[in-house]
Amino acid sequence: MNRNNDEGGEDGKKIYETVGPSHHFTKFEDICEFDEAFWEVTKELPIRTGSILRLSSEAYSRWRVKVTEENKEQLVERYDEFRLKDYRERDNNREIKNVEKTPFSRTMRNSMVRIMGHLAKEIMLSRDDGEMEHTVCDLACGLGQSVSALASALYAEEETRGLLERTRFYLVDYSAAKLDKVRETLLKYNAAEVELRAVKDTRFLDNTSKEFDIIMSLCHFHKKPLFPLGTLPIYMALHVRKRKPLNGWKERMRTKTP
Question: In the listed set 94, 113, 136, which residue is the last one of a domain according to the structure?
């Protein structure tokens, strides 16, 4: 397979040798050829590079790859192939699998959950005017540790319990069984509404017309970023309406500890 002439280069040269530094690959076939050629360059190194297509798209520009409507779906599919391969390797390797069950892993995960819940609470308080309806989305929520930490933090103080009655939670995860359990937990805290979406994160963000005040997602010991197309879809789903300033939430974070 040789498309070097299409790029204005000479026959026999690698695809990355036929283009200038400012060139970005957009054809999926050219991206794959460039990826394979780069692997070839590093074959004599003690530690070889992995595929560029394992990366989040936020890193693509450093590798002269540009996401377009034409190649987007193919890039996501190739990313998913690597992700599923990693999961299979993890399940077949006891040492790797046990890393997620160590005391350190549990401690770090619990700390992240507690801090995320506290931070989300402080942001909600900074924006709240006593009547505002809040929308919170938890992506890949699993058993809902993050969003439950937020609900618990709000419910713990009498003056903040009213926010829960004005907060709509949107839970996104592959597992419908997990979603049902999280909904039961949130309803115990008197949440205004809990909507469930048993769907892939990126598919949800690409197709939802909803906008959110806060989007949460707990990622720990992930070998790759959660979103193959970066965090742009998250930003696009956040509310763009005008708001009051975040009244001193950073100062409160300095004086309060979760």
Answer: 94
